[in-house]
Amino acid sequence: MISRRGVLLAAGLTLLPSRAVAAPSIVKPLPATDFILHGTNAETRWEALRDTGSLTPVSKFFVRNHTSTPLLDASSWRLRVSGSGVSRPLSLSLRDLRALPSTSVEAVIECAGNGRSFFTSQQGQSVSGTPWKLGAVGNARWRGVSLGLLLRRAGLRSSAVDVLPSGLDAEYVTGGVNLGHVRRPLPVGKALDDVLVAYEMNGAELPVDHGFPARLVVPGWGGIASIKWLGSLEVSSSVLHSPWDTDYYRLLGPSYPASGTLVTTQVAKSAFELEWDASVPAGRRVLTGRSWSPDGVRRVEVSTDGRTWRRATPVSRGAWTRWQVPWLATPGAHVLRVRADGQPDESPYNTQGVSVRGGGEAPGHGALVTRRNSSSSASTEPAATV
Ligand SMILES: Nc1nc2c(c(=O)[nH]1)N[C@H]1C(S)=C(S)[C@@H](COP(=O)(O)O)O[C@H]1N2
Ligand SMILES: [Mo]
């Protein structure tokens, strides 16, 4: 009998030498068993989450970098809080930040473009941006200082309307235009609600790729709000803008106003912990997966025949819900589908391929249902291809 350790070792030996890939923009190792690379970004493979708990291990957490992970010097780093919306500007060292009362929150961070590739593969529409499948999402426990607490320490004025967090990574240049540091305004209302200036992820120091020494965590909002490598927070009594709210992460297209509609909160999504076009042995199987939504997840349903839906059983509830459902897999090709809380089949078209609830004109629509497209199995063993 082969021991579990033996199995792991054998797997490691066969997989590591040829498959560990480094994207120059990302510091942590990106083994092909865990990640799909898209330029400067790395997408988590859902099958790699099968044997993990509710929190996404840092080693498997997706990375979305506009440029490259900067290596910042923690001893000279400062977080500046200033602007017309505060009366006592702050300049905090990491030590200062760590000395303030801390809180921790379990929160999903999901790129607003997660699922974008399905606009093309399932809806036949062409969209711009990284062609993520469903792996531009992760769940972690973040510890840090409440943004509300920081703003109050800085003497937040009642006239303040917007906070503009800015990253210390390289300025973003696209199409020959320098758009400056990655930054996106956040309304004071949300800033005072549940936003964290985080310096810990899953109980350890924030990893460099995820924003060391500190990042924002904006629960429920598209990932762009959670600015990494935070250097400054401009608090203003007048409305602030950046290309990341005027040009990017807006719903644009025929059914939206000419200037588009701002993307803020995410919508319910679900995924199976399976590779795409997975082949599994025929027989009794247990399908596992996760569903998440800023509004919380109440009901998860799975379809294995394309027609009927059954309730999945929750395995754990947290910032996302893990679930399972038994399946008698017969040989042949199958399409597996999952939906949480009535996720619709289609997402309304927008040029940037953001799956959100419509900008007012399409109430109730928004999320993409996970499907596993059928394909024929090349295996001679009886197999179910999903
Ligand atoms: N400074 C900075 N912050 C950033 C980004 C970036 O490129 N630079 N990318 C944003 C986007 S689009 C997403 S989806 C999340 C991704 O967070 P992660 O890389 O920790 O998974 O970070 C956001 N914060
Ligand atoms: Mo993103």
From TrEMBL:
Residues of the region (Disordered) are: 341-386
Q: Which residues form the Oxidoreductase molybdopterin-binding domain?
A: 66-244
One Pfam family hit: Oxidored_molyb
According to the record, the segments passing through the membrane are none
Q: Does the keyword Metal-binding apply?
A: no
Q: Which SUPFAM superfamilies match?
A: E set domains (SSF81296), Oxidoreductase molybdopterin-binding domain (SSF56524)
Q: What is this protein called?
A: Molybdopterin-dependent oxidoreductase
